[in-house]
Amino acid sequence: MKTKKISKVDLIFEHINPREVLTKACDMSPEDIINEMLESGLKGRGGAGFPTGMKWKLCAEEKNRTKYIVCNADEGEPGTFKDREILDRVAYKVYTGMAIAGRAVGAKKGIIYLRGEYKFLLPQLRMELDGFHKMINEICYDFEIDFRLGSGAYICGEESAMFESIEGKRGEPRNKPPYPTASGLFGKPTVVNNVETLVNSVIILKYGAEKYKLLGTRFSTGAKVFSVSGDTPIPGIYELELGMSLLEFVNEFGDGDTKAVQVGGAAGFCVPRKLFASTVIGFEGVPTGGSMKLFNSSRSMYHVLHNYLDFFAEESCGQCTPCRVGCQQLLKGVESVKRGESKSTYLNELVKLAATMKIASKCGLGQSVGNAFNSIVENFREEIIY
Amino acid sequence: MYQTDNLVKDLVETHGRRRESLMPILQGIVEQHNYLSDDAMVEVAKELDISAAEVYGTASFYSFLDTEPRGKYVIRVCKTITCAMKGKHEVIETLEDILKIKVGETTSSGLFTLLETNCMGWCHKAPAMLINDVPYTELNREKIVKIIKDYMHK
Questions:
Q1: Residue B122 in contact with partner chain A when CB distance is under 8 A
Q2: d(CA A184, CA A34)
Q3: Using one digit for the tens of pLDDT, what is the confidence trace for A279-331?
Q4: Which residue of A has its CA nearest to B55?
Q5: Which CATH number do you get for residue B116?
Q6: Which of A89, A139, B4, B36 is the most buried (most CB within 10 A)?
Q7: Which DSSP state fits A187?
Q8: C-alpha to C-alpha distance for A29 and B65, rounded to whole angstroms
Q9: Contacting residues of A for B57, CB less than 8 Å apart
């Protein structure tokens, strides 16, 4: 597969005049805004990669007078911290994106669900929000944003679990369909967008879809903020054009001894060295919400896997059996293989269990446990056994 | 046990009596008292006109809404992979050593509770911990000793 050279860009954190962009949004019809988003090819930056324009279009088509824009700032995926950085540095662009989405779909109310771990940001964010509300009042833009805090539950990053949480309940995901665009928060049509996705919508409106598409590839347009951590001499936040190979990435960020990269966090995939050159970072290859963890040859992949399984076993909401029991059994299973109490062939059974979880789990959490599990077991089997 | 009557009433005044007011109210109680006592949860249930089981059921879902007594300062050390790779064990050892408690326990002074938590989004500055709402990053023994000393003298 053809890949792009690594290329740093500066669009997300670039300072802009939000009033200008919102005035432009006011001059456009909601249909035109949605068409611009569709044309840009923007896909959700939280990890799942649903086309943003399509989401807005579906919500706009609903005939309800009350609709909501929910900003997903429950950044809980291990290894991602870019949304905190975006909120810390350019929160007004997030607010602007929500207001644009509001105009596009016909929503007057926005809610930002901020994870409890980021509560320290709230005073600063509220102050900036006051300024934003004042500004949009001046240009007669009817939209209001409010904050809701999480309380330490990874699953609330799942959109329907987030609705439950905002509604004052346990954060247990709902059955789909109905999808949020038809019946979301309080049963009303709702658009849920990740922090970075909303900022991208501002960029698209400012520069136009044509220009935006020049970045990235056909299937992964634009750039993406990456959270780089693990065995790297330069951990941090980097905005890079999508479509580069993992090898390009490792050459830039690795410590010269990288044996694997976990792309997309605990719910993502582990890519071993031999596949670096053939792996594209993007929706046509390995998608990521931004989490990039590098592991060098001093690391035990058993520990990595064990850590992820421990994470999932704790964070599974417990509502559906495949996920609740599956996470626990995968964890117990690798422990027993490691101790030599189960034969190494037991790993094959566990791979089947992970595959079952993918089919039978109610939400994305249980469905993705197998990503990390299978990719680590497949590529580092000896490290799990011995 | 703590007195909640006025606090719960104040929070209900601020956030309202609807079901969606529940989380902000519970978060407000934890902010003041670091945990939710049975009395507090019953009080909230009465105010919102829902069953106490609903309140407990919701509270017990969230790891930051503790239903057991906690110290004035709740320390949560990140245990997810990057922090684990970058010295989380030493952070725990140092804290256990200074505070003379194990993970999950509260000091006899009632000042500190030591807990572990999942990824808090500071992987590039690992290892990290939260004390109540404040994050501390790139921890080492020296730094931890100083941070804890500061809290002891607050």
A1: yes
A2: 20
A3: 999 999 998 889 999 999 999 999 999 999 999 999 999 999 999 999 999 99
A4: A169
A5: 3.40.30.10
A6: B36
A7: G
A8: 44
A9: 170
Interchain CB contact of B151 with A (< 8 Å): no
Residue type, position A128, single letter: E
- Does the interface predicted TM-score (ipTM) exceed 0.95? yes
Note whether B24 contacts A: Cβ–Cβ < 8 A: yes
Tell me yes or no: is domain A18-212 CATH 3.10.129.10: no
The residue type found at A146 is D
> What is the SS3 assignment for A192?
strand
Tell me the two tokens of residue A310.
Answer: 């421990």
Residue B64 domain-assigned (yes or no)? no
Considering the domain A301-385, what is its CATH architecture?
Up-down Bundle (1.20)
Range of the domain at B107: 73-152
27-66 in B: which are within 8 Å (CB) of A?
A: 27, 57-58, 61-65
Give the pTM. 0.97
Q: What dihedral do alpha carbons A234, A238, A240, A244 form, nearest 10°? A: 30
CB contact under 8 A, A228 and B117: no
Q: Whole-angstrom Cα distance, residue A119 to residue A36?
A: 34
* Maximum CA extent, chain A: 70
From the centroid of its chain, how far is CA B42? 20
Name the domain count of chain B: 2
Residue A291, phi then psi, degrees to nearest 5: -75, 120
Each domain of chain A, given as residue ranges in start order, spans 18-212, 301-385
Give the Cα separation of A193 and A175 in Å (integer).
Answer: 19
> CB A237 to CB B118 under 8 A?
no
